[in-house]
Amino acid sequence: MQLQNDERVLFTKEMKRDYTILVPTMLPVHFKLMLNILREYGYRAELLENSGQRVVDSGLRNVHNDTCYPALLVIGQMIDALESGRWDVHKVALLITQTGGGCRASNYIHLLRKALKKSGYGFVPVVSLSANGMEKNPGFSLTPMMLDRIFYAMTYGDLLMLLANQCRPYETEAGVTDALVDRWANRLTDEMKGRGPLSYRAVRRNYDAIVADFAALPRKTEEKVLVGVVGEIYVKFSPLGNNNLEDFLLSEGAEVVVPGLLDFCLYCVYNQLNDHKLYGAGGFWKTLVFRKVYDMLCKKQKDVIEAVTREGTFRPGGYFPHTVELVRGYISHGVKMGEGWLLTAEMLELIEQGVGNIVCTQPFGCLPNHIVGKGMMRIIKARNPDSNIVAVDYDPGATKINQENRIKLMLANAASIAGQHAAREVPLPRHEEEYGGEPAVSSGFFSNSQHE
Amino acid sequence: MERIPARMTMGIDIGSTTVKIIIVKNGDVVYQQYERHMSQVRPKTLELIRMAKDVIGGGELTVALSGSAGLGVAKAAGLPFIQEVFATGEVVKSYAPDTDCVIELGGEDAKIIFFTGGLEERMNGSCAGGTGAFIDQMATLLDVTPEQLDTLSLGSEKLYTIASRCGVFAKSDIQPLLNQGARKEDIAASIFKAVVDQTITGLAQGRRITGKVLFLGGPLYYFKGLQREFVRSLGLSHENAVFPDMGRYAVALGSALFAEKTGQPMTYEELVGRLEAAASESHAARYLEPLFENADDYAAFLNRHGKASVGRADLDAYEGDAYLGVDCGSTTTKLVLMAEDGRILYDYYSANRGNPVEIIREQLVKIRARCGDRVAVCGSAATGYGEDLVKNAFSIDAGLVETMAHFKAARFFDPSVDFILDIGGQDIKCFKVRDNAIDSIMLNEACSSGCGSFIGTFAQSMGYSVEEFAKLGLFARYPVDLGSRCTVFMNSSVKQAQKEGAGVEDISAGISISVVKNAIYKVIRAHSAEELGQSIVVQGGTFLNDAVLRSFEREIGHDVVRPAIAGLMGAYGAALYARELALPESSLISAKELESFRHASKSVTCGLCGNHCNLTVNTFGGGKKFISGNRCERPLGREAAEPLPNLFAWKLEQLEALKPLPGRRGKIGVPLGLNMLENLPFWHAFLTALGFEVVTSGVSTRETYIKGQFSIPSDTVCYPAKLMHGHIADLLEQGVTTIFYPCMTYNFDEEKGDNHYNCPVVAYYPELLRANVSELSEPGVHFLYPHVGIHRPAKFADKLFHNLRAVYPDLTLREVREAARTAYTAYDDWMKAVKAEGRRAIAWAREQGRKIVVLSGRPYHIDPEINHGIDRLIASFGIVVVSEDCVADLVEPVKVHVLNQWTYHARLYNAAKYVTAQPDMELVQLVSFGCGIDAITTDEVRDILEAGGKLCTQLKIDEITNLGAVRIRIRSLLEAVEERERSHAATK
């Protein structure tokens, strides 16, 4: 793929020394680990933590308002950071991920550059982070050793997120779960220092140790409603994008189940294989390499699942090769823009795991989600009558009260499905057959009313 | 049934607009109240409870709350809360177990519950406004109470098509109808019909509403007209459509039942005590900075703006010539009588109240009387939405498009002006001026329509006049942040702010700020004051509101000029234009003729073509007649001598000419929508070669949409995609049992950009259809939607062969390869033919000295139900219409600042680039609502055009059928181009 914007500002070798690379937030734990790796390899990287209305306003000012909400937030967060005065704008670079695909999300980096130019920050270099190296910068490269570490930062991140989600609602002492997550994040950061390849045996030992540590947390045994969260990757994961959805669900007494980030990577690799199958794309050797990578990643995922299963306390995440099979009969694997078929698959995976209550998050007007999210709900509901899915749109103008009211409806249905309300017969006023029908009859129902 | 103990239970339902309270004792309702809370949520609730004191007595009762505003109160008071839809569901399950479906409309939310075939409860999405609040707004628009609106609707004779996507879209269909003089009865009924359509598409989402349907909620209880439309649209029998008297209280009753099970018994005093404590609790909303610190601050501001005034002369003393300007806007009517030297003799500004003709008549009578023989009206001009109507009614000399009127007035005021922002009732217009001519025009579209009429409607609903309401905001301490997406979103933000305890003044200030933000960030898309210009003039009635003016200056950080006659600028510009005409004599209606002036209107359906336009025929006495609502000249009795070349019409004709050829493999259906409107020649050739008889669905009409609207799962998807549901239904109705509609991630590679994708909706809509149109999964129906790689001709046939062989085992690879070759050739020929026809049209236009418009969008914009006849509208101005694909390869591929990875969009950039080098061409871009990708292309196309010195015109289209706003945009473009050419000629 050939890219334009030849005039883009490069991140040079000199810049590596004294420029600070600002990274937008998406998954707090994962990103923290990954950032530490960048630092270890000589980059001055910082995670942006600015949030709130200022970020949204900055996004509205700098991005076409019909652009998807994640773009608006990420770009808003970056420009707000530049304007904050915290950094010397002539000594910062911005890092953004680039996926490349039929969704408009692949345009984020270009929209960011446009916005920078418009705001007078055209000189700030933007570094693209993509699996296939869509844009090159002389001062920024991910070496194999770094990629190796970033990969494990992701599997660790997924595992920590999985376990923390299963502990947080049940903790007997508030905050112990997050404290444990922090402790592990720091320890893992220390372990990943150094230059040589990581010992996979050590990684697997860590998996076991992490699971054991979480299992040792004191937990209440009460029953909680399980609620899955799927959706567009940014609003699904980022508290900034989804109005702190996880906190809200927790406060409503739910346990949150969120499929991990590795699945999304596997999905991207799988799509390469599938493109070969569908269209004959990417010759024999390239496909063979992707096949190997795919198998290797699946194996790594399996090791994490096994670590969780071995210990026995927690529910493990889904195994990707199985997740792939779940969508057959629902949607084709050819649907690969945005979260594509994976979004449908994750809903089905959750349902299969007994998590039938699902919040499907999407930016308002998200194109792929018309198909893979809202477009698949009818068929999912028809084949899984106990599933209980609510689609929630996120947007600068969408009010929290409306979002929460819809989620509350889902939760009420969840409780009902769980049979918690079915236990007692509802005591009812008489004349139940008179509700409805001709007005004369139903007004009779109110014959005792003092107020007409 | 077990009787409940002799204890009372109370259900409180606090919605966005009303409070409902019900008390049940021993199975009988002993108390019920339903009242609007006017945003005074907590005090109102308490008031209604206090009224029940005697009913409650000294005993204990259980209490639960529900409703969107109930949540906050429940939290604050520590009372149980039940989600309202869930509450409804519980009640209906108990009381009317034979119900199949419940439809409940509230003030802000619409809900549906399906009971039969899997319980499902849904609420409307964020982008939907067909509810009680919407009906209230529409009533205000018609200047009637909601009750009168209902009464009116019962006297309807016909229905207009009113967009049902949301309240704002509906409004932009209704306003022009009003201005054209359509009957209020018909409009009222059409409003209810729009609510019904909105409910069906937005909520049913693929499930059919059948069986016994229970209609609940306030609006469905009060509005008989709404009831009638629901029954009619759903085809319900009398016994299956149930509108219970207690429909308003369903949620409250559900809460009462819930309280009975979960609530703690408490006494009256305890309950009141808890709520009182809750009422005093204040909540933090998102606050903005106050507009003015203090009165001095405001005085300085007023002083500065007081300087921009215009001279006045006494009409009763003046002698000489005068010129009349009439601005019949969407919501207000303005008149200016101007003296020879530009001073104002008389002015008038008023809301339309749904009948501008009568208002203008009254004014003219007054003016004529005061002029007597002293003042001679030597010229008159009309502008605004109602221009044609009033021009015909009162024999006004000339008309001009409102953008030009505003431009003229602003320049008269400040000849050095380089930026004009006009915020009117319905429209926001911005112009950049360079070299005394308009350099670019930006107009709002439906989704950025937060302007004057929104403030007006809102003020009225709170019981204030606009002026009072605006004043309140000036010194608000904590203006609330209401966002800027659109008025539907803003409305719900207001509701949220109210629930959080924001006062009227904070809301007033917040609305003013939102209107300004909307104009700056969504319409102008500006980033800084420098971009706007040095001399900025702001005008339009909305800027008379000091809070709006202040917000604007604040937001851009720059002082601006607001003429004292900001609200009259259109009319003043028209008067200036009337003076420019230098007529020997004005044809304006005389005092005597005014005496016998009569106005009547009736609506008819034009039968001259398949479009069936709703025409409004206005008669003014003396045989004068004015017809509006038409898309072309035919109903006016003026047939164009010879149709001009029009690529949109031509392409459609070519596709329609592809007829089915009988084949050995039988019939195969192809839906004629989205990318099929370009790829049909390919698939027709391919399938025909394989021995299929290729049957297509008919060209889309409104009926196509209605036929399929039941199965649309996402209400925010684009209209072209929604139509696909109807096309599938059409094919099935034709008796076709095999339908071919492939998924195409990739489009043909035209080597114009970085990649050649289709957008996600075009690429995968067949998957969505399969999952939502249940008929496609019925036995005997084959829906073939393989993922094909049309971009790789070498592999295409082999891959598709494997796919098709599963269904047609007798197919051979050779056969498919051969068919593929034929198909690629056919497609190639088709693209060549399109380009050749484009060249021919351009050559013809140049020969004839005609202007050319490159009407650009996607291939499916040739569908007349999608473009609503915009191509013909443009042609009616004597312009030759070509499409973007005819000119896209006439330039080197354009380098753009974004990832250029969609085949259709790459053409767009190229077409824009090409147009910049052609003096006789303009580009008009069609943008479908909901097209997320166009959020990226529109900015880019604008950049290309403006860098090349061209005006950029973008038309956002959806279901909205009324072309009033489109006509203004096209006329603005044409008149601005003319004005530019004149001024360039003058400077040479």
Question: What does this molecule look like?
Answer:
- The complex is a heterodimer of chains A (452) and B (988).
- Chain A has 17 helices and eight strands.
- Chain A has 452 residues and is an alpha/beta fold.
- Among the domains of chain A are: 13-140, Rossmann fold; 224-259 and 318-417, 3-Layer(aba) Sandwich (Rossmann fold).
- In chain A, the strands form two sheets. Chain A has a four-stranded parallel sheet with strand order 2-1-3-4. A four-stranded parallel sheet of chain A has the order 6-5-7-8, sandwiched between helices.
- In chain A, β3, α5 and β4 form a beta-alpha-beta unit.
- In chain A, α6 (144-167) runs parallel beside α8 (200-215).
- Chain A is globular and about 60 Å long.
- Chain B has five domains: 8-98 and 252-280, Nucleotidyltransferase, domain 5 (2-Layer Sandwich), CATH 3.30.420; 320-414 and 573-595, ATPase, nucleotide binding domain (Nucleotidyltransferase, domain 5); 419-560, ATPase, nucleotide binding domain (Nucleotidyltransferase, domain 5, 2-Layer Sandwich); 648-803, Rossmann fold (3-Layer(aba) Sandwich), CATH 3.40.50; 831-987, Rossmann fold.
- The termini of chain B are far apart.
- Residues 1-5 of chain B have low confidence and may be disordered.
- Chain B has 988 residues and is of the alpha/beta class.
- Chain B contains 37 helices and 30 strands.
- In chain B, the strands form eight sheets. In chain B, strands 3-2-1-4-10 form a five-stranded mixed sheet. In chain B, strands 7-6-5-8-9 form a five-stranded mixed sheet, sandwiched between helices.
- At the A-B interface, α3, α5, α15, α16 and α17 of A face β3, α4, β7, α11 and α19 of B.
